[in-house]
Amino acid sequence: MRFRLDVDGERREIDVERSAAGFAIRIDGAVYRVRTRSTAEFVDVRIGTKRFRVRLQGNEAILEDGVHRLRIEDVSEDRADVVEGRPTDTGAVVDVRSSMPGRVVRVAVAVGAHVDRGQTLVVLEAMKMQNEIPSPGDGVVREVAVAEGEIVTADRVVASIELRGSSAS
Q1: Where are the domains of the chain?
Q2: What is the CATH number of domain 2-76?
Q3: What is the 3-state secondary structure (H, E, C) of 148-164?
Q4: Predicted structure pTM score
Q5: Is residue 122 within 8 Å of residue 147, measured between CB atoms?
Q6: What secondary structure does DSSP assign to 78-99, as a single string?
Q7: CATH architecture designation of domain 93-163
Q8: Longest C-alpha distance within the chain, in Å?
């Protein structure tokens, strides 16, 4: 996932990739290995040997050193990591996964629904922010694997889509 993050007026280009040990986060070209653990109140973030306890409240991040104003823009899910490693030809069924842990606040589709690439399937709330999980391509919803109010882990299958056409990448 790529996005632009403005923290206290300083703009950063962020690229996040899920790895077996957590996340690889590239900030303005520098790569950091990050592990996280979420609770209802905060997120523990470990970067190397450093640990941070972060509480997100609206558009603010509260850390030990104070309150920081956040603004996220230009979010793009241009990587295929939300799609399980299966062929993406017409008729292929792909599993769409959550890229982070969170609580399902809305299931936007039902089994049998026709969806377009980028259409919201599920909305998760993680760290007081809502994140939309989009369809990876045009297709038909074959399974919805979560329910509103449910807590999901990162990499959890939230829906399965049978692709049609050539819009999947």
Answers
A1: 2-76, 93-163
A2: 3.30.700.30
A3: CCCEECCCCEEEEEEEC
A4: 0.50
A5: no
A6: -SSTTB-SS--STT-EEEEE-S
A7: Beta Barrel (2.40)
A8: 52
